[in-house]
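Feature request, filed as a ticket because there's no other form

It would be nice if the structure record came with a short human-readable summary line next to the tokens. Right now we just get the raw output. Example of a typical job, pasted below so the devs can see what we mean:
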Amino acid sequence: MEHIIKTFMRVLRKMDDADTLIAQFPELERIALSEPAAITDQDRRRLLDLPELDIQTANLAAVTELDKAQLLERAAKSPDALTDAEIDLLWHRFWHDVTDDEALAAEKACEAIGHDEWDELADRLARAREPLYEEHELVAFQNAPKELTWRITADFRARRQKELERALGNAAQWIVRIWEEDLRDRPGARCGYATFLDPSVKAEMGAEDYDDYDCRADGALLWAKMSIRGADAINPRWLMQRLEWPTDLVTSGETAEEGREDLTTTFQRLRESFRSVRDRPPKEALSAKGSGLVEGLLRNVFLVVDRDAVKSVSKHTRSVDDMWVWAIDPDFEPNTTPSSGEGVKSDRYQGYMRVRLQQLVKNFYEMRRWHADEFSMQALWEAAQLSRDQLFVSVHEDEAKQWTLSRDVGSAIRQL
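Raw output as currently delivered:
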């Protein structure tokens, strides 16, 4: 118990001697638990770590017009009616002008002995103290930090709401739809994609080169989101969920070409893995619960990052318009008739395509989220054939053919 007692305000301010109180604690504990009415007021203050009566009275008068009983009742029954100064006084058990060192003493002691041992000692002290509290006193001390935390979070929520309203006021219509339809009433939901990363890429590149790729890719997406009106509203909820690469899938390391047999085989195996994850209960973004896709992520497409996708995002890449990633249709089945909305199935279309990296947060996302019935993955692949290097940009021919030499924001991103 010595570690906790040494953090008492009475000890820190030299009203009590730590060694004396440590030695007397077992007896004070016994009396408190067996004969609480027999304990003296002075020993009650020592055990509860309260200031002397004259100091307590002066501290009360400094922050409130209420007497002690009135303040305790208000804190117990209507904590929202407390002033910030009253909350601070109750939080610190009637001590005033608590310094940073005094406030952090318990935290440092906890770190020194470990949380488990600290919690055991704190529970023991709480049991000894409980019979000694006056009416409403314990609940008042408990409610003060709760009320302060609520006010801090309420202030944050109010500021965030104002920022959100400001961002949405000038946002692109599809950004507004993401917020209103997918995010606003679902705090655990996210927007974005599920992604597979070929594990051989990181192993062969080394940590430093892979981190360079990761930073460049994140930077390209950030530039794109910053250039879309209102994207600030959804940025905190954007997620690229990394899925586990199947252990039985080993890649060849050769340069990828659309239609190559082993590439098609790889993507078919990843489809199976994605569908198995998609069929599980949704994963909660704010906890470890669930093993499926995080709620809100697109379920009709997933991304794959392999060696060639990584090579497109390097210091040697001329423009962000040359950066890309594989997008895979999870429901495509080779050698079958076209699905609803696809029309005539192309012999060249194999259920996957390459997408400009920055279009993941604009045209491609909008197409897969709201226009999948109108524009199938095959239709998007066909639109990509009009673009430089056959990377999807847009279903509109004028945008599809755009390319710009830029290291930050590519073509068909900025909105006027």
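Something like this underneath would help us a lot:
The chain has a mean pLDDT of 89.
Residues 171-400 form one domain.
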